[in-house]
Amino acid sequence: MIDLNGANAYFHTHLAQEYWKRFSGPQLTAAVAQAKRIIKGRLGYGIELDDATTDDDDFPRHDCAVYEQALHELRRMAVLPENGSPAPVELFPDNKDDPKSGPSGAGPGICRDALFYLAKSTRIQISRG
To answer: Which of 122, 50, 107, 45 is nearest to 76 (CA)?
Structure first.
């Protein structure tokens, strides 16, 4: 299930673990809910988030994409932790010069870390036959 418990488990072994733990439960729950809306909105009409995707070999990993997007949203929106920690310094505004954000004016984009779990990269090899 894509929820706060899943997000906490995901970030337990993540490099951003300490950053994630700075925020309160309600802030993290809101970030996960917002990330789910963003990912679902960008997947397209008729495509649902797959709550059952939890194995490392599964693809796409909607759960991991949502959790990475939630982290991105906390950073992008400059959310202040409720526990007295200093304000986050990693701000990613939505603009065309930001590689971690969607196109300007198109609403919140999917960050590249979330996209990694949604789309396989492909290479085109051109050869002479």
So the answer is: 107
Residue 15 near residue 76, CB atoms below 8 Å: no
**CA 47 to chain CA mean position, Å:** 18
Query: Cα–Cα distances in Å, from 11 out to 19, 71, 103?
Result: 9, 10, 27
What residues contact residue 37 under an 8 Å CB cut-off, 6+ apart?
none
For residue range 113-123, list pLDDT tens digits in order.
999 888 776 55
Q: Six-digit token pair at 23?
A: 């925020």
CA dihedral 80, 83, 84, 88 (to 10 degrees): -30
pLDDT at residue 91 is higher than 50: no
Model confidence at 101, in pLDDT bands (50, 70, 90)?
A: very low
Please report, for the chain, the start and end positions of each structural domain, with discontinuous segments joined by +: 4-115
Total-model pTM: 0.72
